[in-house]
């Protein structure tokens, strides 16, 4: 009598196949990328007819996608104009970047010297991903991977709420950076961005928190902010004073003097 073969069926979890992304999700991803790379600038009107042709989607999934981006804070409804990319003024930039600087400072003070090898390895992995994006010549992905690197630096503190606070700034920071991304990448180049992050990692590995803070100060988007700041409206006294400090910091750095962290 022939021996019977028992076939083991995969369990329920193994049988599940992730559904393909919906058209609305694909459209949201595409429009989000247009905003964060600067193709759509803050204050630009979102023209549905144009996007349906450009993305190859119908109006219903596009409108669902736009609602998602409204919830993320990237789009806003404006009377008589319809949906626009959320405007950014100088005071917004001041709030976003000064908060980022303080969160990074707190993370370095709590997390350097690094006590967990796994946390430092996360920084190394983020740098490898950044190098891969530069190797592919993908400027938008380079910007994303650079943010991931900074998030890994914040993660060195082992402070979940601090990391969540930093992560919550992600889209706002990238929206600001997208306003001048082409000029930033053209001026520095993708591999220039990689080299700056390599230098930060080397400083982290040496374990001197003050040295890391100085590197992050030099690494900060100060030149970008100064160039962008003079073209923005919404000029509060606080933002003007901040720009003035950044200008002095850049001058001191050029002269080889120690510049205070903004």
UniProtKB/TrEMBL annotation:
Segments forming a coiled coil: none
Residue ranges of domain HTH gntR-type in the record: 21-88
Matching SMART domains: FCD, HTH_GNTR
Molecular function GO labels: DNA binding; DNA-binding transcription factor activity
SUPFAM superfamilies reported in the protein's UniProt record: GntR ligand-binding domain-like (SSF48008), Winged helix' DNA-binding domain (SSF46785)
PROSITE patterns according to UniProt: HTH_GNTR (PS50949)
UniProt keyword list: DNA-binding, Transcription, Transcription regulation
The keyword Acetylation is annotated on this UniProt entry: no
InterPro entries reported for this sequence: GntR_C, TF_FadR/GntR_C, Tscrpt_reg_HTH_GntR, WH-like_DNA-bd_sf, WH_DNA-bd_sf
Pfam families xref list: FCD, GntR
UniProt cross-references to PANTHER family, sorted A to Z: GNTR FAMILY REGULATORY PROTEIN (PTHR43537:SF45), TRANSCRIPTIONAL REGULATOR, GNTR FAMILY (PTHR43537)
Name of the protein this chain belongs to: GntR family transcriptional regulator
Phylogenetic placement of the source organism: Bacteria, Bacillati, Actinomycetota, Actinomycetes, Micromonosporales
